[in-house]
Amino acid sequence: MPLSAGAKIGPYEILAPLGAGGMGEVYRARDSRLNRDVAIKILPPEFAGDPNRMARFQREAQALAALNHPHIAAIYGVEESAIVMELVEGNNLAGPVPIDDAIAIARQIAEALDAAHQKNIIHRDLKPGNIKITPEGSVKVLDFGLAKAFDVTPTSADSPTFTMDSTRAGVILGTAGYMSPEQARGKAVDRRADIWSFGVVFYELLTGHRVFEGETVSDTLAGVLKTDPDWARLPAGTPVGVRRLLERCLQRDPNKRLRDIGDAWIEMDRPAEAPPRLTQRSWIPWVVGLAIAVALGAWGWLRAPVSPPRTVTHSAMTLSTQSVTPALSHDGTRLAYAEIIGDHAQLMLRMMDHLEGKPIPGGAGASPEFSPDGQWIAYVSASAPAAVKKIPVTGGTPITLCELPSGNPFNVILSWGADDTILFGTTQGVMRVPSAGGAPQQLTTVNTKSGESEHDAPQLLPGGQTILFTLGHAAFSDSNKIAALDLKSGATRVLVNSGYSGRYVPSGHLVYVRGGTLFAVPFDPRRLEVMGPETPVVDGVSFGYYSFSDTSLLVFWKNSVEKVPAQLEWTDRKGVAQPLSDPPRAWGMISVSPNGKLVAGSIRDNGSTSAASPSDIWIYDLERRTLTRMTFEGFNYQPIWTPDGRWVTFTSNREGKYGLYRVPADKSGPPELLLTADDFTEPASWTPDGKTLLYSQRKDGKVQIWSLEAPGSGGESKPRLFSRSVFNEDFPALSPDGKWVAYTSDESGKFEAYVEPFPGPGGRSQISTQGGFGTFWSRRGRELYYVQPGSMEMMVVDVAAGPVFRAGSPQALFKVTGSAPVDVLFDPTPDPERFLVGRLPERTAASTFVVITDWFEDLRRKAPVKK
After folding, report:
1. Fold of 8-269
2. Which listed site, 25, 300, 594, 862, has its alpha carbon 20 to 30 Å from 757?
3. What is the pLDDT of residues 792-835, one digit of tens each?
4. Which of 31, 125, 730, 827 is catalytic?
5. At 169, phi and psi to the nearest 5?
6. What is the dihedral of CA 852, 494, 610, 786, to 10 degrees?
7. What's the mean per-residue pLDDT of the chain?
8. Which of 149, 342, 271 has its CA nearest to residue 789?
């Protein structure tokens, strides 16, 4: 019986039918665990009711799930009496198409077959109905190996469509025309059966006609066994190599047929005519000439000077947008990176011989990493829930490999090893997940008692038994260490005591970043020993974002520290600004005191605007124009005032540990610790009585809102979770009467501003309509403010926060500056007609990638490796 929309199969909800065939009915379904659409094929009752066949089917399906290729539709698993597969959008293959397009499509089909054949998996039912062209123009081969998984008997000609329902003449005819002769005779088959079907499909793609056609199944099979293809139907201009390839594929005798689909393009490129045989008279001068050439060559080689070392070149790639996390393919021909626009990260792909990059369709995320064969890109998607995904280099539907257990999605560095697993770091430890997806395996454990906060930047060393990683106390910190994990013994050894983003380079070096400089030391990966002193080799490597290829290319993100200070200004509701007489400074977050006379803010060291630059908390007196420093150690930021104006609460990262602190505004005492945390934590808002603090904290890969009682308030000092959803929630702001809390959530797929009762429970109202972050209430509680991403406009919404919350439509006030969500350089004041704004000079977003050629040669010269 057909399934209706809403029916459940395990965690999958049926959405709509997609089609039906001899192997069952196919439906679009929703995976509730990974929030993705899939295709589900319901097995026929006579099949699902046979325990022996189902057991065989599950064994075969497990083997098929190991296939990992951009032109093969993935199999996710078996659920009850159904098989769960990758949902492929697009149209089925149909000819004729232009010759060049046909060759390009056939090449992708051949690549899919070759990848499967290398794993001893045969399709057995290759035909246009099992091949789709995605909207991006990429080929996807479907139902790989399901013929064997369905345990078809030899007497049925090895065709699942042919045997499952012998009354469906059209379906039978559709498969019979693509069978190999040995299949039609009911004999055992090997990969050469797929090569025959490939030839039939390629012929049809070029001509628009089937090779073998008949009114009945018997007529069609007779053609397969006896009739030669009509080569006259091939279009004019068909290359000789294509004709020759088709002839080799369509040999009835399997022993004479092309033996390996991987040789298809070698066959096409082979010269059409063999060179003429040399007669006895003709070969004598050739031999004499060859002897002379060899003698001259030897003399020239003996006299030739030693070749000078290859020239190492440096060049810059300047992009017009903010772009980060570069990744080179192993062959050095392609560069992937993340382009940041507002709060959105888009994967880009640039051929190294082209001037510009192009978006990868469907690739929304950062931290890309190429597969060893260069056909896939793994990356991190920050949209809730944060996850490690992969996507074909040509774009398409992303495949979720696993959720990110913990850590900042934008700080994760992936590594795709030769063992076809993907390594990544978290605040729990180094994780490993198969490239086909699954539950991540934890390989290391972060020791929080010793001050560790994360393990990051893992790399599988040659031999596959050791993993190199960064033992971290803080992201991109010089206090981190480079360590190695022995997978057999589980022992960890520290290799370098100061540095991060370590990598082993085929030149024989271990490289790592410290203080924005890339260092190298000679390194033995088998004995795990540093074999010499460290040498600085490249300057200006920002955040450890670098990548190298097997062809000796290096690309890194240029660390250009800009000293662009912010000018504090009074700004009215129309955006008319009145700058303060105080000089510009590198302000981070700013917060106006309850009486409007003081400003607490973080100021970065050395005037840098980099979010990773150290900073301290300062208080600026707006009347007296004096500036007082409040902190002297650690990385301090995000100050907020208590309602009585006596304290400034802030975040500090000290010795690799995050913490919430408060310091007396009159500096009558040192900072006091309120809370320690293992991951990023920020204070946000106090209740009007100053007894409870709302703050946001990243925990297990998600940002959530928590509450904490203040010291001496009489309440429990243990943190309590306020967030009630599995999505990222941030920027909580309490209304002046303490009855409502505004915050942002990415439940809809992007951050929007919401309001709900405090402390709850109760319903919530969405405030923003086109994205929002950084929520603030007016001092009288009659308006809500937030920043709209992309445009960076401050929006205002009229609200009535009585027994029932009501909100008007958002209206734009003026643009603010800052780097969302790191800096929000504005704050309301007690005067509803003006705001304090930190104004940055207008700048055009840009990034620079530096490219170094023959980098391995440069390493060997600067840091020689002893033999």
Report:
1. Transferase(Phosphotransferase); domain 1 (1.10.510)
2. 594
3. 788 999 998 777 788 899 999 988 764 433 455 788 888 888 89
4. 125
5. -60, -40
6. 120
7. 81
8. 342
Q: Please say whether the beta carbons of 543 and 561 come within 8 A.
A: no
* Contact (Cβ atoms closer than 8 angstroms) between residue 619 and residue 582: no
Contact 38, 12 (CB under 8 A): yes
pLDDT in tens, 721-754: 998 787 888 999 999 999 999 999 888 767 899 9
User: Cα dihedral angle (807, 808, 813, 815), rounded to 10 degrees?
Assistant: 60
Residue 303 Cα to chain centre, angstroms: 54
Rounded Cα–Cα distance for residues 35 and 306 (Å): 62
CATH of domain 314-561+849-861: 2.120.10.30
Q: Among the residues of 49-150, which ranges form H helices?
A: 51-64, 99-117, 146-149
- Fold agreement (314-561+849-861, 567-839): yes
C-alpha 4/C-alpha 1 separation (Å) is 9
150 phi and psi angles, rounded to 5 deg: -85, 0
103, pLDDT greater than 50 = yes
Q: Select from 625, 668, 629 the least CA-distant residue to 646.
A: 668
What is d(CA 638, CA 602) in angstroms, rounded to the nearest whole number? 7
Is 125 annotated as catalytic? yes
Q: Is 747 exposed, middle or buried (0-12, 13-18, 19+ CB in 10 A)?
A: middle
pLDDT of residue 304: 44
Q: Which of 7-21, 208-222, 607-621 has the lowest mean pLDDT?
A: 607-621
Query: Dihedral through CA 512, CA 513, CA 518, CA 522, nearest 10?
Result: -20
- The C-alpha atoms of residue 456 and residue 427 are separated, in whole angstroms, by 8
| CATH 2.40.10.120 corresponds to the domain 567-839 | no
The stretch 841-848 carries a mean pLDDT of 63
How far is residue 187 from each of residues 147, 156, 159, 211, 530, measured CA to CA in Å? 14, 10, 12, 21, 60
Average pLDDT over residues 429-444: 93
Q: Is 178 within 8 Å of 126 (Cβ atoms)?
A: yes
Choose from 145-159, 284-298, 569-583 the range with maximum mean pLDDT: 569-583
Helix pair 191-207, 99-117: axis angle to 10 deg: 170
Query: 726 to each of 152, 681, 700, 740, 744, how far by Cα in Å?
Result: 45, 18, 11, 21, 13
- What is d(CA 784, CA 797) in angstroms, rounded to the nearest whole number? 5
Residue 174's H or E segment, with its range, is helix 169-176
Read off the pTM: 0.51
Query: What values do phi and psi take at 267, rounded to 5?
Result: -60, -40
Q: Which residue has the higher pLDDT, 252 or 278?
A: 252
Residue boundaries of the structural domains of the chain: 8-269, 314-561+849-861, 567-839
Contact 693, 649 (CB under 8 A): yes
